[in-house]
Amino acid sequence: MPEFAPALKIVIGGVVAAVFVALFIVETSFSLRQAKKSKAKRFFINVGVSGLALATGAYIVAPAAIGLSARSSENSFSLLHVVRLPFAAEFVLGFLLMDLTFYYWHRANHSFPLLWRFHNVHHVDPDLDVSTSFRFHFGEVLYSLGFRALQVYLLGISVLTYLVYELVFQCATLFHHSNVRLPIKLERGINKIIVTPRMHGIHHSIVKDETNSNYSVIFGWWDLLHGTIRLNVRQSDIVIGVPAYMAPDDNRFLNLLILPFRKQRQYWSLTDGKQAQRGLNLNDKKNFLLP
Ligand SMILES: [Zn+2]
Question: Residue 194 C-alpha to ligand 1 middle, in angstroms?
Fold first, then answer.
């Protein structure tokens, strides 16, 4: 492992913690969506679930990925070693490929029932704010190791590219999960490049087609390229959550941990058996970010 890696890992931890605190303060004063549940109760549940996820990531996934990344320089068939490029070009291409392949991974988590059992835990949160950012079942983080290993090894990602990507990835995750109300014009501008809170808010809607859209993490272009972008939904019209898991008991700490191992409900059915639908009047401004 390169000598700079341990120091860079500490810097990443510090920056991510600072960004979390800053977004938490701003979203409390300038909220985008109105919360359904008490922020304090959710906060402790999310801290518990996130703590297990972060520990799994920090002690199992990251060391394995960094180890494989350091070894991928010996791997003659990895993409970035077959295509020999100057350092800067290799860094930029590696960074973009990490983000594109993560888009596919997120999409796979929604498409394959076994993966969705775990990813559902993230979506069951009845509100969306910065505390949701790392609220993943630790099982999801653990099996993502298989994806990370393939990603880093087959692409031939250097340790530096991996760690810088990880820093930007974590900060982007905090930003687009946050409940920060940005001026709409500013957000439309930023959204031409990166995923923003309004765009990701649609990904957490109880409407199935909306949850199955906007999978990108850093750059929103991947959704645009694959036709999975959905912007034309007003935030005030969004109900956050998964329809079949809206009861207060569904969002308790222990219930969330055992949720993937229990018999699954009809995810998209509301209590009356119907699916949440979006009124047609909202579809007229096709794919234009609404307030
Ligand atoms: Zn998702």
Answer: 16
- Distance of CA 204 from the midpoint of ligand 1 (Å): 7
Task: Collect all residues with Cβ–Cβ distance below 8 Å to 120 and sequence separation of at least 6.
Answer: 242, 245, 259, 260, 264, 267
Q: Cα(201)–Cα(239) distance, rounded to whole angstroms? A: 9
Query: Count H helices, E strands: the chain?
Result: 13, 0
Q: What is the pLDDT of residues 205-244, one digit of tens each?
A: 999 999 999 999 999 999 999 999 999 999 999 999 999 9
Rounded to the nearest whole angstrom, what is the distance from the C-alpha of residue 161 to the centroid of ligand 1? 24
Q: Determine the Cα–Cα distance for residues 285 and 234; give it in Å rounded to an integer.
A: 11
The one-letter code for the residue type at 233 is V
Q: How many CA atoms lie within 13 A of 52 on its CB side?
A: 16
> pLDDT for 144-198, tens place per residue?
999 999 999 889 998 999 999 999 999 999 999 999 999 999 999 999 999 999 9
**What pLDDT sits at residue 227?**
93
Instruction: Calculate how far, in angstroms, residue 203's C-alpha sits from the geometric centre of ligand 1.
Output: 7
For residue 77, the CA-to-ligand 1 centroid distance in Å is 32
Q: Which residues pair with 194 in a beta bridge?
A: 219
